[in-house]
Structure formats: C-alpha cells, structure tokens
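Field notebook, page 383. I keep forgetting to write these up properly, so this time I am using the form the group agreed on. The chain and the ligand, 5-O-phosphono-beta-D-ribofuranosylamine, are recorded exactly as supplied. Prediction of the bound pose follows.
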Amino acid sequence: MRKIAIFASGEGSNAENIYQFFQKGNRVRVALIIYDREESGIARRVKEMTGVRAVYIAPEDWTSAPQRILDLLADEEIELIALAGFLRMVPQAITHAYAGRILNIHPSLLPAYGGKGMYGMNVHRAVIEAAEAKSGATVHYVSDELDGGDILMAQEVDVTPDDTPESLCAKVRLAEFELYPRAIAMALLRIPPRINVDPAASAATAEAESASQEPTPAPAQTETAIPRAADVNPPAIPGLTPPATPAEEWAQTLGVRYDAGKVKDALGANPDVEQEAPGVTIVEIDGTPRATSPAGAPRDSDATDREMPPTYLVWSIVVTLLCCIPAGIVAIIYSSQVSSKFYADDLAGARRASERAQIWIIVSFVTGVLFQSLYLPVALLFN
Ligand code: GRF
C-alpha cells in the first residue's frame, strides 16, 4: 500500500475526488490531508472521508513549525504530496525532504496562463478573453518557479464560443478529476516505494527555517522552492517500468498482465477509434502526445482494457466444467440406478440411489459455483 498526502486550502473537490478514486483500489491510499483554513470546503469534506488523518495547521505554524508537518508525513509514511488548491508556500524543509515528490494541478494548459496572478477564475477569464479554442488542466512537479515545474500530464478541453469563465471552470474541473488521480498513479510508479528521508537533514533545515523568522510571502498560487524534477528524478526501479500508455498504466495498477500487441490487433478492426473522440485529449505523457475521449466519458484505453477479461472468462469456464463434471457423472450414475432398482422392486435401493444422486448433484453444483467464483482471485494471485 502506497500512501499519499494532500495539502489543500479551498473547496477540496480535487482532494475528495483523489480520495474516492484510490478508495476503489487497494494500492494507494490518501492517508493524510493537511489544510490551512478552518472554514473551508476541504475542512467539511474531510469529515466524510474514512481512514484519512485530517490535520488543520494554522497559517502561522506553516513557517514556524515545519518539523511538526514533517513528523506527520513521516508518521503516516507518506511517499508523495499532492497540492490541490493549496494557496500557501510549502516550507523548504518539506520541499527538501520530498524533492521530486510534490505535485500541483493548475487549471490551464501550462505554460500558457500560468504564473503571477493566474489562479482561479482569473485563468478562465483570460482564456476566454484571448478567444482560445482549447484550455485544460496540467499536473506538474512543484519547482521554485511559479507554475514552472516539469509537466507530468495535461488534459485539454474545448473552449466553445458560448463558454463563460464559469462554464469553462466547470469543464476544466471535470478534466482535473480525470487527470489528477492518474497523474498521481503515474508519479508513484516513477519513484521508489519507500521514501528515504534523512531525518537529521530535514530537522536541520526545519530548524534553520524557523530560526530565520523571515516572513514567507503568501503566493497568489501554490508554489515552492525545490530543484526541478529533472534534477531529482529517482533511478529506475527494477520490475517497475513506467507505463507507456494509459492502458498499461491501468494494467500495472490492477496488477494484471497486459499485452499491447494483442490489443493493437483487436483495435485493428477499427482503425479510427482514436480519431473518434473529440474534445479532451491527453496532450503529454513523457512528451508523447496521446488521444483520449472527453472528460467523464469512457476512454479508448478503457475499451482496450476490455480485451483482457476474455482469457479469464474462458479459463474459468473450463476450470469450472473440469471441477464439477466428475461429481456430475457420479450423480448421473446414481440417477440411472433409481429407475432400474424401482422396476426391480428394490424400493429401498431406489431410495438410496435417489438420495445419493441428490447429494452428488449438490456437490457438483457447489463445486461449480465455488470454482467459478474463486477462479479470478486465485488466478490474479498467481499472475
Ligand atoms: C483547482 O482548479 C486547481 O486547478 C487549482 O485550484 C483549484 C482547486 O479546487 N490549483 P478544489 O479546492 O480542489 O475544489
């Protein structure tokens, strides 16, 4: 189980979406949510989230007591921090300890409409005023440059002539909901499973920071000062190759085998499948453009994922038949004895044969049901 933390200040819709997304699986958990506004959407939403440690850190404590936050992160064995509408500078002690492990989401296609003053509705207003045809959301690693860290993934939405800043905001938010959890899963695949924080070093940074007593300027948009992600990229992890496509990413997340070749063959029947989806497009994963369908709609990769289960289906039917057939044959033998014994006036024998036939019919049925329902989990265990 890999654990992440979320820092949030505002409505908390992304935080809630990330929480719900990972609740569906058992590989990643939102273990900790730290927020800095007592009267906020996130403060309310977090009460509904089970198994999440929710901690309010008062604004003044972010600069004076970063060690407390580091301790919380260490206690919960946090491997990655996702900023979701977090409107405060992350203390350097944290950015140093979690270098390359802090993500942020921005409501535009960075680098466009990023930087000073570009936050909230300002972004959407500027996009509409410039009559852009596309906008979207970008997940990036946090760097010392405002909205300037290395881009991990982005997702486009169409801007239509009747769009208002509010309607565009709603569209972009949907794209964010689809994008951010996937970007987090992708980032986790790239980093070693356990964070290697040097407690002495981060404690020293925390101490130096609080000793300096310098007031931290409140940024208009989330920003931190850490090396660029490219400088802190962790080494490749054996057996944990970053996925090349969303379908592979999901196969890895689900722990199932995925044969891209077979899927390609299956898609060959419909070569237009990637062009059919207008609207939202994953524009960059490791610099490679990828197509997908509109936010909220099933993606093409979802269609390709459906190529995997038939293998399980065929084998589970074969295994089920193999397991219940022997018991079924015994049931048939006993059944055939019932009439022959009855006509031979062996009523007691006919009754015994009938009872045995019933028992074996039940055994055959139960074995069939058991193997049918256990096959998939057992197969996944050995996969
Ligand atoms: C999102 O639009 C995100 O892109 C930006 O702040 C907003 C947060 O919204 N960084 P919420 O608090 O998650 O609802």
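OBSERVATIONS:
- The first strand starts at residue 2 and ends at 8.
- Strands lie at 2-8, 28-35, 53-56, 78-83, 102-106, 134-141, 151-158, 282-285.
FOLLOW-UP: compare against the apo run.
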